[in-house]
Amino acid sequence: MCGIVGYIGKSEIKDILVDGLRELEYRGYDSAGIAVLQQDEIKSYKAVGKLINLEEKTKDFASEGFGLGIGHTRWATHGKPTELNAHPHLGEFSYVVHNGIIENYQELKAMLQSEGVTFLSQTDTEVIVHLFEKNYKALNDPMAAFEKTVETLEGAYAVLLITKVDPDKIYFAKHGSPMIVGNDDNGDIHFGSSDAALIGKATEVIYLDDGDYGYTSVEGINILHNRKPKALNKKALIGDKISAQKGGFRFFMEKEIYEQSEVLGDTLIGRVLDDKIQFDELDENFFDGIEEIKICACGTSYNSGLACSYIFERQAKIKATVEVASEFRYKEPLLTKNTLFVVISQSGETADTLEALKMAKAAGLKTLAICNVDNSSIVRIADRTILARAGIEKGVASTKAFATQVMAMWMLTIYVAQIRKTMTPQEIKVELNAMRHIPTTVVVTDKLHEKMKRLSKRYLHGHGFFFIGRDMFYPLALEGALKLKEISYLHAEGYPAGEMKHGPIALADSELFTVALMPKTLHFDKIKSNVEELAARDATILAISPERIELTDDYVHTYHSDHPMSEFFEMMVVTQLLALEVSIRLGNDVDMPRNLAKSVTVE
Ligand code: M6R
Q1: Which residues are CB-contacts of 521 (< 8 A; sequence separation ≥ 6)?
Q2: Residue nearest ligand 1's atom 10 by CA
Q3: Which residues contact 457 (CB under 8 A, 6 or more apart)?
Q4: Inter-residue contact 250 to 243 (CB < 8 Å)
Q5: 192, containing H or E segment
Q6: Residue 594 in contact with residue 467, Cβ under 8 Å?
Q7: Which is the catalytic residue, given 10, 361, 520, 598?
Q8: Residue of 300, 387, 476, 598 to test ligand 1 pocket, by largest number of atoms within 8 Å of CB
Q9: Would you say the CATH fold of 252-438 matches that of 3-245?
Q10: Distance 323 CA to ligand 1 centre (A)
Q11: Which of 223, 196, 6, 216 is closest to 95 using CA atoms?
């Protein structure tokens, strides 16, 4: 979840790079850096935190005349957000910026270290620059060295590399992460990992394909593929920056729903091993003496905590309670030292959650944050943090943050179950296997999205929605209702399905819409009975289930019913798309719904 820019030409290089990075800052802002190469001299600057810190650091630097440069804005996945881990990474005479993940970096690093190379950072990226320099020393040809380097890398990457041994060129490679190269009317060259960085700069662009690599100079762009030159497929670049940031989607929320598959993969990386969960952020002693966990959060983050409290008790066999942070603060809670206090927050700045965390710390409890924003207030205060790794979430309605929070909490559950030996190695393997499949489970297919678009037109009126579910599908029902109400402004409530007949079913008639979450793997017969009770009272019902339900009005077929969590994540996507499409049909501003803010920093 990072951004890349590059430039070759006669304009002031720093300004062009920083300007491009500003357009990409929405993708990551825990650190940023640039490297500028002019007449055999490379100047590099890096700063932790937002881009403004880099701007401040480079305010006295300006290039003059011809030169080239690369820049990067980072969202940490490997290694903390420090200056050393910020890009560009340097070797002896070259610099590199990279998006993606080099999967074989550990073996490459070990090989390079055994040959005497010293690494400065904890990143996977740094192997690229050292590998290039090793190959250059052997081949004495920068292009051949770069080609060999790219052929050794496994994983996903978009790479720009500059080197003093070939000071007029930028070397590039793309495999699995986006990269665009273009030129302006003066013939200057521009690189960006998204259109947004290039709009207003390049006039013609080439969207590189996976497997493309090569070099550019002001003499032209040279692309190779499988060691053969490739024709340039240039396109005119038009558009505005905001729509470019949305990557072709109508709203950030929509884009973020589609991104869930990718970011859930990021949440898993390096943590789900063959036979166990590993968290570099934790050590096993951290759970010594813990007999209870108390989860505290607001809104969507509360819903993710509530969902995971079910599996925590069931699998890790530790009592798990969940509290809304704004209630917890003022109830004079009894806090005992054998309780691990877990806060969940996308932003890390939510006032009520932050204050609850401070109370727990003051009472001497161990604290753990599940958070998406490194260096946020909550992360700084908690004893330990597990980063959700959702990347920047712009839509006020939280989607991918919820998904990654649930994933992180599920992994934590299994981690504790390992330590406490409350699950057998075989049972743990089943969970790990299910986790690895979740990124596939949440892929939005055209068929599903079309179905939700069509269905949405039937749900624009009525006197309210009930989302119902049982077990951990009850918190998912709460979350589905929250999504719908915050962006459609229609009344929606989440309810435990078994509670309906204790009051709410009095509301049932054809104008009451019920969205029933009916997983095959958890209490299917029980929820089916609840749905039958509602159908008998003429409620309008949308069933989401892998089982065809004849008596409901509408039905969304789900396909992943091998594990309750697969069902959970697949149904999550269905409810998100329903809220999105209803809101769009009602003509609302999906990303900035009325009366709401992305981060609630007041109580
Ligand atoms: O940043 P946090 O996760 O702490 O925010 C908590 C809530 O304000 C947030 O989840 C809110 O409910 C969202 N708008 C829901 O989509």
Answers
A1: 561, 562, 563, 564, 567
A2: 300
A3: 585
A4: no
A5: strand 189-192
A6: no
A7: 598
A8: 300
A9: no
A10: 14
A11: 6
| Ligand 1 atom nearest 297 alpha carbon | 4
* pTM flag (> 0.85): no
Q: Indicate the top mutation candidate among 371, 398, 594 to test ligand 1's pocket, ranked by most ligand atoms within 8 A of CB.
A: 398
List pocket residues of ligand 1, CB cut-off 6 Å: 298-301, 345-347, 350, 353, 396-398, 482, 486, 596, 599-600
Protein residue with least CA distance to atom 7, ligand 1: 299
DSSP H or E run through 578: helix 564-585
Listed by start position, the domains of the chain span 3-245, 252-438, 446-585
| pLDDT single digits (tens) 59-116 | 999 999 999 999 998 876 666 778 888 899 999 999 999 988 888 999 999 999 999 9
C-alpha 301 to ligand 1 mean position (Å): 6
60, HSE (Cβ side, Cα atoms, 13 Å): 1
Please indicate whether residue 296 is annotated as part of the active site.
no
User: According to CATH, what is the number of the domain 252-438?
Assistant: 3.40.50.10490
Cα–Cα dist 387/370, whole Å: 6
Tens of pLDDT, residue by residue over 416-458, are 999 999 999 999 999 999 999 999 999 999 999 999 999 999 9
CA of 599 to the centre of ligand 1 (A): 7
Residues 6 or more apart whose Cβ sits within 8 Å of residue 440: 261, 560
DSSP result, 236-294: E----HHHHHTTT-SSHHHHHHHTHHHHHHHHHTTTB-SSSB--TT--GGGGTT--EEE
Q: Please state the CATH superfamily assignment of the domain spanning residues 446-585 in this structure.
A: Glucose-6-phosphate isomerase like protein; domain 1 (3.40.50.10490)
Helix, strand, or coil (residue 469): strand
Cα of 75 vs centre of ligand 1, distance in Å, is 20
For 175, the enclosing helix (H) or strand (E) is strand 170-175
Reply yes or no on whether 598 is catalytic: yes
- Which pair of tokens denotes residue 597? 């803010």
What Rg do the C-alpha atoms of the chain give, in angstroms?
A: 26
CA of 569 to the centre of ligand 1 (A): 19
Tokens of 80: 């903390």
Q: Which atom of ligand 1 is nearest to the CA of 399?
A: 16
Structure tokens belonging to residue 497: 């399905």
| CATH superfamily, domain at 3-245 | Aminohydrolase, N-terminal nucleophile (Ntn) domain (3.60.20.10)
Q: Which of 251, 296, 298 to mutate to test the pocket of ligand 1 (most atoms within 8 A of CB)?
A: 298
The conformation of residue 594, written as its DSSP 8-state character, comes to: T
Q: What is the pLDDT of residues 132-177, one digit of tens each?
A: 999 999 999 999 999 999 999 998 899 999 999 999 999 999 997 8
Coil, strand or helix at 295: strand
